[in-house]
Amino acid sequence: MRNPVFSRSDEFKTASVTPRGPVPYAQTSGAYGQYGPGYHDPSGAAQLNAMYAQPAAGPLQTGRITYDDVLVKSFSLFAVILVGATVGWMIAPAHTNIIWLGCIVGLVLGLVNIFKREPSPALIILYGVFEGLAVGGISAIYERIWPGLVMQAVIASLSVMGVTLALFASGKVRVSRRANRILLVAMFGYLLFSLVNLVLMWTGVTGDVFGLRTEVKVLGVPLGVILGVLVVIMAAYSFVVDFDEIRNAVQNGAPAKVAWRCAFGLMVTLIWLYLEILRLLAILRNN
């Protein structure tokens, strides 16, 4: 299953193996061109050959995306999210509405950025601000109830992302169609469960703060723990898919501005992973 952030753009499709660029003149007609060594070409074929012999322009010269672009944009967006999270952390304990504001506006901006054909750095940065408000506010609530939980969740999330990147770079994990299909079914099933659980919590059918996640137990283990572990695995594989999409974009020579979409996709997955780990640790702490 492709990250919807990336699936809207052709730049992230699997790169073609057909070589690009012109073929040097000398290679098309022999070492001296088609007229032999004694021929003087007044049209400047020798000059054309010399031009073809020059080294090809790199990504920086052609305005194409590089891994450095993705890294810089990702760190920049992460810093914006941290600033927003800091504000949310300080405000949320006294004004919990800041969480809803961040969630609603962040969701709207997230959808706009997903369905927008051309990446907009301004909208992506705004998404980071409001999503940061929501994440910081939620984290503050969790930290007040379970001290020390947020730092554990942050370390765990960054560790999962780092290990997944290392495994992907080493070639030990790869994207497969079968795994994508499994991920698609699992994500839709989890989304359906989350919506049902949310409705039951809002209507008062379940009295616990986590709803069915803690009220239902499987062999004495809360359902939320089992689901939490599975979702962390799903999020980790989602990182593999994201990294594969980024590699395709670089190999396809996508425009440099696409790096913002790459950063946006990575942060969407990272925030999802962090919130799931935060809830999983809270359920474990609560039992």
Distance between the ends: 34 Å
* SSE arrangement, N to C: HHHHHHHHHHEEHH
Strand content: under 5%
Indicate the multimeric state.
single chain
Total E-strand runs: 2
Strand arrangement, largest sheet?
1-2
- Count structural domains: 1
Number of helices: 12
What is the residue-averaged pLDDT?
84
Output the radius of gyration: 25 Å
The general outline is globular
Low-pLDDT segments: 16-36
Major sheet details: 2 strands, antiparallel
Structural class determined from secondary elements: mainly alpha
Helix content: over 70%
General description of the model:
- The protein contains 12 helices and 2 strands; from the N terminus they run ααααααααααββαα.
- The chain has a two-stranded antiparallel ribbon.
- It has one domain (62-286).
- The chain is 70% helix and 1% strand.
- The radius of gyration is 25 Å and the shape is globular.
- Mean pLDDT is 84; it is low at 16-36.
- It has helices at 4-7, 25-29, 45-53, 59-62, 67-91, 97-115, 121-145, 149-170, 177-202, 212-215, 223-251, 258-286, and strands at residues 217-218, 221-222.
- A hairpin with a 2-residue loop joins β1 (217-218) and β2 (221-222).
- The chain is an all-alpha fold and 287 residues long.
